[in-house]
């Protein structure tokens, strides 16, 4: 007589994790193999998952984070224990800081040995280390809990304010056997992982009344507004209200940058002059000078301006974090903006024309000045003449993703290259972190299939440059443009002792294009806008992995780009 258990078909931890992810419509894993996840990745691929294997975990993690931002589903990154986990941790922390949903899953060593600190292979108490750097952290010890563990991780990543989640899977778990049917029943399909959060009607009314009373209203759209995928509601609100708006960096393209209500070209004027400012998925952090000081028209650097703020955000604790918020509206942006659109009613009067007129005047002046600068063709290519080419390419290819990092290479690109579609600009975000470039580029290409153009400072590129092999291996439509000015900020720094190069300098005229050729991609050095345009056109037409080494005037940048003032100054010499 055979018992039921002998006859039952078995599954194991490997398959349960894969089945749980698939059940929740997750089809892509960004990873770097090794003990204990090598077989997991092999089986995942065999079971039909897209497995993208990287050269360093930080870039796999960054790819997961960008995938999360683009799709609104948690991006998944798998790493090995201790060092692999730590390499992925920067990406997890960065995702949390930027409110991108991702799940870092790391294999871990044997609990009994780790907890007694007996020196296991890659021993580390990963759960404890991850906790302060992410939104939530979980560990699964038994195969029958895999379904719950993954469901909790998904909910934590995407509900409320999105962020990074850590999931610890000890090596032993993968091999644990379980009855197949019972295993199937233990999995959870997460229903409504990011539930709508409807704002309170009185909070919406308070905000609409304040907006109505404004003589100089302004809307600031942040990357939360882009993430929310409420594009039509937001556009409707902006156009119906007639209020000028400023997009934060990653909200560029939510409405096309050439929209006549965009106040980007009059940014300093509108921030200092506005009387009511409505923040939509944007925090009053350092990127907005904490809502204080000269930027906001205040007298002292620590004092608040005369603006009153409306803040639309999903996080109830965000309001008042820097200055008083007169009208907080808590909810998901789609629900909030749709409530605004209703509460505004039919008889909404647009902002006074002396406000919109004054903005238009400044915009015209600045845009004319910019057009003149862009039209110049200096003998040595500089940021402007190079970016003018990229600006036109993006205009011709509005669906392309633009990845951007560096200092000057970042600041000039942000202000020169207009975006036309939502969520197409991926950059250094809230931390101003270098190293997101290739991870974000791979994610955008893998998840959307669209062309990616990565505009990279030569220093910035160095942080993830080895992933050009990954880009070639998967034959991704990624064109990297390295803005090569021979260094960090510029290539002209001088070591007063003269015995070595200065800390911000790199090898002069380095051939980054050859790195791409090493793996079978297309490498081009461009010394002028014509060469750059030709190479960029060919890259976009062929969709081949391409690296354009754009030689930029090495004296063209400024220290730290636009944030020179954040550098601590040395005490003055007597
Ligand atoms: P930016 O850097 O573009 O100014 P931030 O990252 O500072 O943007 O702010 C994003 C804000 O958006 C965060 O406060 C976050 O809580 C909020 N947010 C993210 N997703 C949503 C959403 N779906 N609905 C409402 N608010 C959201
Ligand atoms: N390390 C990390 C992880 N993030 C950072 N932001 C920095 C270091 C400091 N840093 C910046 O803030 S920008 C930058 C560094 C090293 C590079 C600037 O040089 P670049 O750009 O070549 O990328 P430009 O065009 O020369 O200014
Ligand atoms: Mg540089």
From TrEMBL:
Keyword Magnesium (UniProt): yes
Single GO MF descriptor: oxalyl-CoA decarboxylase activity
Domain Thiamine pyrophosphate enzyme TPP-binding: from-to ranges: 416-549
Listed transmembrane segments: none
Name this polypeptide is given: Oxalyl-CoA decarboxylase
Similarity-based family: Belongs to the TPP enzyme family.
The gene coding this protein: oxc
E.C. number: 4.1.1.8
Gene3D superfamilies recorded: 3.40.50.970, TPP-binding domain (3.40.50.1220)
InterPro entries: DHS-like_NAD/FAD-binding_dom, HACL1-like, Oxalyl-CoA_decarboxylase, THDP-binding, Thiamin_PyroP_enz_cen_dom, Thiamin_PyroP_enz_TPP-bd_dom, TPP_enzyme_TPP-bd
Domain (Thiamine pyrophosphate enzyme N-terminal TPP-binding) ranges: 13-129
Residue span(s) of domain Thiamine pyrophosphate enzyme central: 204-339
Matches recorded under NCBIfam families: oxalate_oxc, PRK09259.1
Cofactor(s) required, per the database record: thiamine diphosphate
PANTHER family per the UniProt record, alphabetical: 2-HYDROXYACYL-COA LYASE, 2-HYDROXYACYL-COA LYASE 1
Organism, scientific name: Ramlibacter pallidus
CDD domains, sorted: TPP_BZL_OCoD_HPCL, TPP_PYR_POX_like
Keyword vocabulary terms for this entry: Lyase, Magnesium, Metal-binding, Thiamine pyrophosphate
Enzyme class: lyase
